[in-house]
Each structure stands twice: as structure tokens, then as C-alpha cells.
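tmp note - SDR family NAD(P)-dependent oxidoreductase
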Amino acid sequence: MSVVLVTGAATGIGNLTAVTLARAGHTVYATMRDPAGRNAGHADRLAQLGADEHIDVRVVELDVSSQASAGRAVDTVLTDAGDLDVVIHNAGHLTVGYVESFTAEEIAHLIDVNTLGVQRVNRAALPHLRTRGQGTLLYVGSTTSITTPPFLGPYVVSKAAMDYLAVTTAYEVGQLGVETVIVMPGAFTHGTEHFPNASRPADTDGIAAAYRSLDPLVARNEEATSSLFTPGADADPQAVAEEITRILALPYGQRPFRAVVDFTNSDVETANQTVYDARADFVRRMGFGQLLDLATPATPVTPRRPTAV
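out:
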């Protein structure tokens, strides 16, 4: 079983993933912002669940917008567990609105959380994973990188940027024994706080008024999304947690680079394969085909694990 750090584990997919992995026997560090304050209720519920079910889920503070916070969280895990096997990048935020209504600063803030937060956590965790010569970076991406739904412009941009950060990072860390997995959830209209907690642009210039004719489309965005589901399908985000748990149960080095959990029948897998084939051909013609495969360092270092945690 693995020592796993999950970002954004207060609610939604991150929370479900932390609990599901702990129930499967992993030692899980469920990280979140301000667990003693704004997220105290979420932190307490996880702690109580761990005690009630005798599963190993531990709450650690981590704000992905702070490099210092990411470093402290990883240090806490290493001090407490003596090792770290898997980092699950899940923290993220949703915005809804007309693209022009968002200031550049508002979009930059979203990218800072959804994309650069991943980079901060990687910079905190990778020194350890590189030293041990083995580990897994698992990114919770989004099918929006392929489907590009309307009225979510800045969110789509930030998730696409995160996806390609994961892909390009994989070329390099894979040669040092660190594997990459990108899990792409489709749309979920219940079971997370994504839509209820979505941000809107401040729009102090009143630009949204120019798009008022589109307001009825925005108003039925969730309904329109739900209409894509196969009738009778249980579009529950728990499916994402179960897929992540299934993947981490596979032998190291045999885990898929991408996995899609989608109930909207959007054929994202086909698009992913087409893009991969084009990318792989380009990289091979450059003479860098080895970067597409996970390498196993000759002398990986096995960190010390405490006998009791």
C-alpha cells in the first residue's frame, strides 16, 4: 500500500478520493486550506471517519497558492510517514461567465490555483520522488480540455494548461522513474461543490450586459449538461475516486497515462488517442522516443519507513 497526498480534499472528488483510498488500505494525507478555520468542519469529519472506520486518513494543511505551504505539507508527510509514494493533484476552482467579463487578473488568479498550484506541489514533492527513483504524479484533469464547453472559458484555459504541464513534465520525470497518470473526469452536476461554489466575474464595467441575449443559455447550463448523460446512468463523482483507486492498485509502471471517467458520451478517449499518436510521432521523429516511456533508474533509493505511524 502507498503513502498518498491528495490536494483539495475538503470536498468533492478530492474528499471522495481520500476516503476511498484510505478504505482500500492506503495511508492518505488529505490536504486542504485552513483546516483549523474555514475547513474545520471538513477536517473534523475526516478525522472522525478515520476513527470510526479504523482507516488511515490524516488531515494536513496545504494551500496550493503558496510554495511555502506546499513545502511544509510535504515535509509533514515525510516526517510523519517516512515516505511519499503518490501525489494526487486535485485542488481546483470553477468559474462561470462570459470571457470578456473577466479581467486578466481574475483569469490569472484562476490559473494560479488550477495550474501553478500543481507546479508548486510538484516542486515540493519531486525532490523526494526523484531521490527514491520511483513515485506517481496523478493529475485530476478535465474532459473540458477536449470538449471546451461554453461559458466556462477561464476554467477551460486553466485545466488545459494544467493538462499540458502534466504532459511536458512527464517527459522529464519519467526518465527519473516517476510515472504520470492523468485522470479526466467529465461533467458532474451533483456530488461536488464545483457549480454551487463557482466564481463569477466581478464585471465592474458591466460587460456582461452586452451578452444578455445569451443569459437563457447560461441559466440552463447544468440542465443542458445533464441532458448529455445516458438515461439511467448514475453520474456520481464517486466513480472518479473508484477509478483512481483502481489505477493505484495496478503494478507500478503499468498504470495508464490517461483515464477518462465521463457519462456524457463525448468520445474523449478517441480524441486523446489521436492527439497522443500525433505527439508521439513528432517526438519520435525528433529522436526523443525514449521520453515517451517510463525509465527505471538503475539504483533507486528506498527511503526509511517508520515501523509504526
